[in-house]
């Protein structure tokens, strides 16, 4: 593993668009479940920051979510107001063959992703193979 300043890029406006995910990867959300949750939502609910039609609700404080198909997956904190202040994550995952054939220059770091939320240092996301 390389030495990385996770705070510098995790809070960037380009995260996670600067990272590459593929089918078969998993995200692990670690957070204080007294104050937060992780809800998978539709794109529309993601944009509106409202979990009116949740696809999945995660509340354990250590949730592992597999990326099982190519395309976008949208996650928000369902606690009132949290999504609007930035507790939301949109992931685009690709088919494995596409990623490996076109993006072979990526290093191992791009397969292990940590995200810590600025406000509470409550969320950590790992992309696990």
UniProtKB/TrEMBL annotation:
Among the GO molecular function terms of this UniProt record, one is:
electron transfer activity
Which SUPFAM superfamilies does this one have? Cupredoxins
The answer on whether this UniProt entry bears the keyword Protein transport reads no
Protein's UniProt keywords contain Mitochondrion:
no
Phytocyanin domain boundaries: 1-95
Which key words tag this protein in UniProt? Disulfide bond, Glycoprotein
Provide a GO CC annotation, any one. plasma membrane
Name of protein: Phytocyanin domain-containing protein
Organism of this sequence: Brassica carinata
């Amino acid at each position: 593993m390389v030495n990385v300043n996770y705070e510098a890029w995790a809070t960037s406006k380009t995260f996670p668009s600067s990272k590459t995910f593929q089918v078969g990867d998993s995200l692990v959300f670690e957070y204080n479940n007294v104050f937060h949750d992780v809800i998978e939502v539709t794109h529309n609910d993601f944009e509106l920051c409202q979990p009116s039609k949740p696809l999945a609700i995660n509340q354990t404080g250590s949730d592992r979510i597999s990326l099982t198909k190519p395309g976008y997956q949208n996650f928000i904190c369902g606690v009132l107001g949290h999504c609007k202040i930035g507790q939301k994550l949109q992931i685009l995952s690709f088919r494995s063959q596409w990623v490996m054939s076109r993006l072979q220059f990526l290093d191992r770091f791009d397969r292990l992703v940590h995200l810590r939320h600025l406000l509470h240092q409550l969320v950590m996301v790992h992309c696990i193979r």
